[in-house]
Amino acid sequence: MNELELLNRLRDEVPPRPDVRAEEHRLLAVIQGRSPAPRKRPVLRPRWGLALVACGVAAAVVTVTQLGGAEQPVKVRQPDPVGLLENAALVAARTKAIEIRSDQWFYLKESQHMGGDLPDFELWSRMDGAKEAVRVKGKLKIGNGEKGPTNPGRTAQELEALPADADELLAHFRGLKEERSPLSICQPACPQGSLPDVNAFGAIGWYLKFGPMIPPDKAAAMYRALAKIPNVTVQENISDGDGRKGIGVVLDLGEAGKGTYILDPEDYHYMGIRVEQDGETRSMSVLGSGIVDQPGQTP
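-> structure tokens emitted (299 positions)
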């Protein structure tokens, strides 16, 4: 039988008005565990109609669930971390790079929730590392710059030196000799063999905190590297320490601790971190960041 003859035969077998109501009752009986009602012989449709058939069956299942008067368990598919973080990488890669002068300042507004009430703080760090400023109770105080790992000039140099390939970047972060993270997830009792992944996860969050300073190709590599860390998952509608909703990128180490980065659902920028350990939750949130020309200015 050739394709034309088969197509004509299939068309002849399609009834003019399918009995949708009978099909709903049959599906309801199947869902509730009863013997299915007698049904007519299966209707064969041309190949081009399979997509429509699938849509019709899905709608029927939803309808009979409502008709039955009882909610049926629904399987909710978790977001795919690889796909979601690839979207974040693509958005980051399309971001325009910022040219930053050494006499400009990196601005950061941050909140900390460590079990007590701590005020939000604003920090300005000059890019050459010479000066820092902090706003305390409305007053701006300027002092000498910090020479450690939070020095923005040093951070900018580190970011430039990082590989833009996700695999190379992940290998680099896994090989760090000391933890660099916004908040420690499981130290000093990380599960055996997990430390390289913990180091990589922590370091990515550390650098994402400096959002405006990150070259677009390096930011894209960080999101892709996150997706390559085993046991990393993503969850939607996660709250940061200030109640803002976002996308959670989660590294769950069981009883040792659980770390979650919260990303903005619109453009995927880093909003903060939440750590759950020993029955307690600690968090830090980035409320604002950017490059400005002098202390006291905000982006």
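Helices lie at 3-12, 20-31, 50-67, 81-93, 152-161, 166-174, 195-208, 216-228.
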